[in-house]
Design a protein that fits this description.
The structure holds three protein chains of three kinds.
Chain A lengths: L6 E9 L8 E10 L5 H14 L22 E2 L2 E2 L21 E5 L8 E3 L2 E2 L2 H10 L19 H11 L6 H5 L6 H12 L2 H4 L2 H14 L10 H5 L7 H16 L3
Parallel strand pairs in A: 1-5
Antiparallel strand pairs in A: 1-2, 3-4, 3-5, 6-7
Helix pairs in contact in A: 2-7, 3-5, 5-7, 5-9, 7-9
Chain B lengths: L18 H8 L5 H4 L3 E5 L3 H13 L2 E5 L17 E2 L11 H11 L6 H21 L13 E2 L9 E2 L5 H18 L3 E4 L2 E9 L2 E9 L5 E5 L2 E4 L20 H8 L4 E2 L4 E7 L22 E5 L16 E2 L1 H5 L9 H13 L11 E4 L1 H7 L1 H19 L8 E10 L2 E2 L12 E3 L17 H23 L12 H20 L3 E2 H15 L6 H21 E2 L9 H25 L23 H4 L1 E6 L8 E6 L14
Parallel strand pairs in B: 1-2, 1-10, 2-6, 10-18, 19-20
Antiparallel strand pairs in B: 3-5, 4-5, 7-8, 8-9, 11-17, 11-21, 12-16, 13-14, 13-15, 15-16, 21-22
Helix pairs in contact in B: 3-6, 3-12, 4-5, 5-12, 10-11, 14-15, 14-16, 15-16
Chain C lengths: L1 H8 L2 H27 L5 H13 L3 H28 L17 H4 L1 H20 L5 E4 L2 E4 L1 H8 L3 H29 L6 H30 L3
Helix pairs in contact in C: 2-4, 2-8, 2-9, 6-8, 8-9
The chains are: A alpha+beta, B alpha+beta, C mainly alpha.
Keywords (chain C): Membrane, Transmembrane, Transmembrane helix
Organism (chain C): Halobacteriovorax marinus
Protein name (chain C): Cytochrome B subunit
Chain lengths: 255, 643, 224
């Protein structure tokens, strides 16, 4: 790596001590960043520098660093997971930036996701939605042979498309209404497309939507920013499916 | 030494096919109405933890789960790409429970416990049924049946998969099963909690101390049993394919409280990772080894050949795997492929700017099958590679290098998955039991789910009923809880108080380099002795010079890391020590001194056909090496050969 | 039972569906109103007779009540949804950038174009329905000369410009609203959704041009 490629960057990072105190944007300058470094490695380097200076490093969520765990988040220059399509922050590389660039880094924001510290947020709301119905009610035991349930290949593929959601919340973060419809619809769709999920399909969609509403997410206005910023490219056709299934469930409901 | 204990794996009597059935019949049961009176702690919510939590709660037990991430769904099981094995024999290609058992024992280089492996193969089919019933979107054939593929050099197609995200889908299945119980109020899920101590009362595991990483508070939880499902310790090497937060601390706390640690030296190094690119690198990314089905591995014949790959003519390329292993070629097992890559790089024939990589070339495959066919098979992997390296693998060969991926060693457990501390169980990668010295591809997911869904529900009941714990309730007011809490609090306070001049990561990196260089793919007596002494030095330096910023209350990521690195600094030494004492080569443990004429691992069955189970004495004293003898009654010991 | 009905009716999904359905009904109204307007090109008599027939039909009260309630539901829900959406993110972003592949100008300005249309609607009713009263007699029947009211109104270039401005806003509004309504009620198809999105744009252009042509026509008629 030749040193002339190394970049100097101006960072504007949201710093917030904890859930109770107010936060602010703080400016940092960092140099010697290799274009081959990942975005999070760039933050690691910043933190290493802050630690040397005796300051508190920037707290941000991350774990697998291969784009599958859904832990990393970050609004980068106003875009969830940064500028690259179908890419999580951990898979974003600094070669996307030029020497001298200014990068604004903020947490994902929504009423349902309080900021815990700096760039870390609490996404418990997603777990609550899944607990409300994002499952097939089958206990461990002796279900029938796996091949006794036939699934048309096309449906299996569509279900897999929906199931690839990593629960990162970029959909909520990028939606101007902080709506969680893409997340909820991905799980509803996955199970609605498979025979295994049919038995409880009505209950599932009702319970998950009502829980989502209760948690304070906004309403979907069909802008598709969620789809465009989803690191797994999950389609808003899932939202249409949820809308349809919910209407049917609500109309035919006996309660 | 007279101190050496011979451990009893508590393998049930009888033919191997009948052991598990007989055992299930002979085990004690907990009365259904009594189950809700028992509280079980599950630490870690990966495949093993989530499946155990769901199943135990379904049975009626009260369950509490703990994870360090913000949601149970983030556990690193999620990153497994390839698939999950089962002996369904759907493709009708000659698979059977016995063959899966046989392959796993052989693949583990005859260092696993036969009875455990047989049970694993037996329940493998139930796993697929269970996951399919949960709505895991497995790949399907046009007729709607499940699709299988051959994986990791297996001669039969027994691997079930969900695109390249099988781990994710199985984990989300287990997670949803667990969340269903959370929704019913039967499982309590505690997130962003780190287990910092195991609490032992009257010789039995009765609870844990956790640190709430958001508030910094220490919390006491009591239970009738503690299940450690905390994964492996590959991050001892700093750079590995493990997630950043994966750590060995929970297992290490148990070890220091009396749970023996088995075979810590068995480390699986995955051959097809994207090579390191700089000192700032935080982790290594693995690419599915299915790439080796079509890619050809090569290095330049000349040393230190700095020409670009495409400028090196065919006759100056060394396709070393194809030459050395004519029948398996590029599809030799993981350990063989990995070791050979390192050999080439050590010879000075490595490629790329660092010289620590070999080529994996798809040019021939593209010529043969067409670019579209290759794109269809590996499109997502190629995309990932390009995203990370900025090189287009359709045009230039990929650069790959081995990286630490999985640890076969772990807490010693008996056939019931119980450690040497009564009431403390270990499941999944956290235990040592099923993979011997080397794990086969697509077997980790199988083992995690087998332990959680189908083994622990039986064996835990047997323990609870057998110990009559219902009449020995312990709550967090017991003095042992306060002692453990004070102990862990003191440790964190101490870490904060050192206020030295080196960051936590710098120590971790330093440890990683020592581990990789000396306790990596090829180990020698000398390198291992060097490692032990260097690790001791780093550890001493750490406790003098580490700088942990911030305070104990609130989120302090440096403090969390410091606590984990402190444990890695002890664990690394044990790994080196185990490797030093195991004077043979087997699976994921290769000693240069013990190799065949063909440079293959040479086992020394007369002396080392056993499990080494290390017993903690004190940090600065040598641990005691106990053993569990292994006997192979069903699969005859033989030398692996992939020629 | 009633409470659970209410629970579903007030859910985010159903609220959006009601928005969609009322929006589509209003699109229908736009078409019929436009056709009515086109009668102006046929001269005062045809137009005034049509208007007279319309207002003297006893069913008009029912139709007006229905139309008014559709409007009120659409507007009321819009207000509620906008407030809820705003509350869903109390702390705004320091910088927010669109991806360029999702939101469009139309989709992100729905509340604003909606508000413009609301203001227009009120003024429109005041200017015409409740505007200056002229009479004309055809075949012995005296009726309102609404034709004159309209032509007079559009003698001011400002009125023409304001009207066209509002019709552009309306076009923008329906260009998202039209297909979005189908998405909300759950209609999605690989082929037809694209078609609907195109149709929405065509519809928007037809509505804007159709409605804008009349004021220009009236203005050009001059003060006859």
């Amino acid at each position: 790596m030749s040193s002339e490629n190394l970049m100097t960057l101006n960072l504007k990072i949201w710093r917030q001590k904890n859930n109770k105190e107010k936060g602010e944007i703080v400016d940092y300058t960092i140099d010697g960043i290799s274009p081959d470094a990942s975005f999070l490695e760039m933050l690691d380097i910043l933190n290493e520098k802050l630690i040397k200076e005796g300051s508190d490093p920037v707290a941000y969520d991350h774990d697998c660093r291969e784009g599958i765990c859904g832990m990393c988040s970050l609004m980068i220059n106003g875009q969830a997971h940064g500028p690259e399509a179908e890419t999580t922050t951990c898979q974003l590389h600094m070669r996307k930036y030029k020497d001298g660039d200014t990068i604004v880094i903020e947490p994902f924001r929504a009423r349902a996701f309080p900021v815990l510290k700096d760039l870390m947020i609490d996404r418990q709301a997603f777990d609550d939605i899944i607990a409300a119905g994002g499952f097939v009610n089958v206990n461990t035991g002796n279900p029938q042979d796996a091949n006794a349930i036939l699934v048309p290949k096309e449906n299996a593929e569509l279900a897999m498309d929906a199931a690839s959601c990593i629960g990162c919340a970029a959909c909520v973060a990028s939606c101007k209404n902080a709506s969680a419809m893409l997340f909820v619809s991905a799980k509803v769709s996955q199970l609605a497309l498979l025979p295994q999920g049919q038995v409880e399909a009505d209950e599932r969609v009702k319970n998950m939507v009502l829980k989502m509403d209760e948690l304070g997410f906004g309403n979907c206005t069909n802008e598709a920013e969620c789809e465009a910023s989803c690191p797994k490219g999950i389609s808003i056709s899932n939202i249409a499916r949820l809308n349809r299934d919910f209407l049917k469930a609500a109309v035919t409901s006996n309660d | 030494m007279s101190d050496i204990k011979k451990l009893d794996g508590k393998v049930p009597a009888g033919d191997i096919q009948d052991k598990w059935d007989n055992h299930r019949f002979n085990m004690k049961l907990v009365n259904p109405s009594n189950k809700r009176k028992y509280h079980v702690i599950v630490v870690g919510t990966g495949l093993a933890g989530a499946s155990a939590a769901a199943t135990l709660s379904e049975l009626g037990y009260q369950v509490s789960t703990f994870c360090i991430q913000d949601s149970p769904r983030r556990a690193h099981s999620i990153a497994a790409q390839g698939g999950v094995n089962a002996a369904k024999n759907y493709p009708n290609d000659g698979d059977s429970v016995w063959r899966l058992f046989y392959d796993t024992v052989k693949g583990g280089d005859y260092r696993s416990r036969e009875a455990n492996v047989y049970r694993l193969a037996q329940v493998s089919n139930n796993i697929i049924d269970q996951c399919a019933a949960q709505g895991v979107p497995f790949a399907r054939e046009y007729g709607g049946t499940l699709s299988n593929r051959s994986f990791g050099g297996a001669q039969v197609s027994r691997t079930f998969y969900a695109r390249g995200q099988t781990g994710q889908q199985l984990l989300l299945g287990a997670y949803s099963a667990m969340m269903k119980e959370v929704g019913k109020g039967k499982v309590k899920s505690y997130t962003r909690r780190e287990m910092v101590e195991l609490v032992i009362v009257n010789g039995k595991a009765r609870g844990i101390i956790t640190r709430n990483v958001v508030t910094g508070e220490y919390e006491k939880f009591s239970a009738d049993a503690v299940l450690l499902c905390t994964g492996g310790y590959g991050n001892t090497y700093f750079l590995s394919s493990n997630a950043m937060a994966s750590n060995g601390s929970a297992a290490w706390k148990a070890y220091k409280k009396g749970a023996m640690f088995a075979n810590p030296c068995y480390t699986q190094i995955h051959p097809t990772c994207i090579p390191q690119h700089g000192d700032f690198q935080s982790k290594l990314t693995l690419m599915s080894e299915s790439l080796r089905n079509d890619g050809r591995v090569w290095v330049p014949k000349a040393k230190a050949d700095k020409r670009a790959a495409l400028d090196i003519p065919e006759e100056e390329r060394d396709y070393y795997l194809e030459e050395k292993y004519p029948s398996f070629g590029n599809l030799v097992p993981r350990d063989v492929a990995a070791r050979n890559a390192k050999q080439q790089s050590d010879l000075g024939k490595g490629v790329g700017s660092t010289g620590v990589a070999v080529y994996l070339d798809f040019a021939d495959a593209i010529k043969r099958d067409g670019i579209e066919s290759i794109r269809a098979k590996y499109g997502n992997l190629f995309e990932m590679y390009q995203r990370i390296t900025d090189e287009n693998p359709y045009e230039v060969p990929m650069r790959i290098f081995p990286a630490v991926h999985y640890t076969m060693g772990g807490l010693w457990v008996d056939y019931n998955l119980m450690t040497t501390v009564p009431g403390c169980f270990a499941l999944g990668e956290a235990n040592f039991s099923d993979h011997g010295a080397n794990r086969l591809g697509a077997s980790a997911l199988m083992q995690g789910l087998a332990d959680g869904y189908f083994v622990i529900p039986f064996t835990l009941g047997n323990y609870l009923a057998g110990e009559d714990l219902i009449n020995q309730k312990v709550d967090t007011s017991a003095k042992e809880f306060d002692e453990a809490l004070t102990e862990s609090e003191a440790r964190f306070t101490k870490l904060l108080g050192i206020n030295g001049n080196k960051s936590v990561d710098s120590f971790h990196r330093e440890l990683g380099v020592v581990m990789w260089d000396n306790v990596g793919m090829a180990r020698t007596e000398e390198s291992l002795k060097t490692a032990i002494s260097k690790i001791k030095d780093i550890r001493a330096d750490f406790w003098k010079n580490v700088k942990v910023t911030g305070t104990a209350d609130g989120i302090n990521i440096e403090l969390e890391k410091a606590n984990r690195v402190a444990d890695f600094l002890e664990l690394g030494e044990l790994m080196a020590r185990d490797a030093l004492e195991r004077k043979e080569s087997c699976g994921g443990h290769f000693r240069d001194e013990y190799q065949t004429e063909d440079n293959e691992a040479r086992r020394v069955d007369d002396e080392f056909c056993h499990v080494a189970a290390w017993e903690f004495t004190s940090v600065d004293k040598e641990p005691i090496r106990n053993i569990e003898e292994l006997s192979f009654e069903n699969v005859a010991l033989s030398q692996r050969s992939y020629k | 039972m009633a409470s659970s009905m209410l629970k579903y009716a007030t859910s985010s999904v159903v609220k959006k569906q009601v928005m969609g359905v009322t929006g589509l009904l209003l699109c229908g109204f736009l078409i019929s109103h436009l056709i009515g307007n086109c009668l102006m090109y046929l001269g005062p008599e045809v137009f005034n007779k049509y208007a007279h027939a319309l207002v003297t039909n006893p069913l008009i009260y029912l139709a007006e009540a229905g139309l008014a309630s559709i409007f009120l539901i659409h507007i009321g829900l819009a207000a509620k949804l906008t407030i809820e959406n705003n509350n869903a993110r109390p702390d705004k972003y320091f910088v927010k950038q669109k991806t360029g592949h999702g939101a469009t100008f139309a989709s992100s300005t729905m509340p604003y174009t909606g508000l413009i249309i609301l203001v227009f609607l009120i003024l429109h009713l005041l200017d015409f329905k409740f505007g200056p009263l002229h009479t004309a007699t055809y075949g012995g029947v005296e009726m309102r000369d609404i034709y004159k009211t309209v032509v007079d109104y559009f003698q001011s270039p400002l009125s023409v410009l304001w009207y066209i401005f509002c019709m552009i806003a309306l076009g923008i509004h329906v260009s998202h609203g039209f297909w979005s309504a189908f998405q909300s009620i759950g209609f999605w198809h690989t082929k037809y959704t694209c078609l609907l999105q195109c149709l929405a744009k065509v519809f928007a252009v037809v509505i804007t041009l159709g409605y804008s042509a009349l004021p220009i026509y009236c203005y050009l008629q001059g003060g006859n």
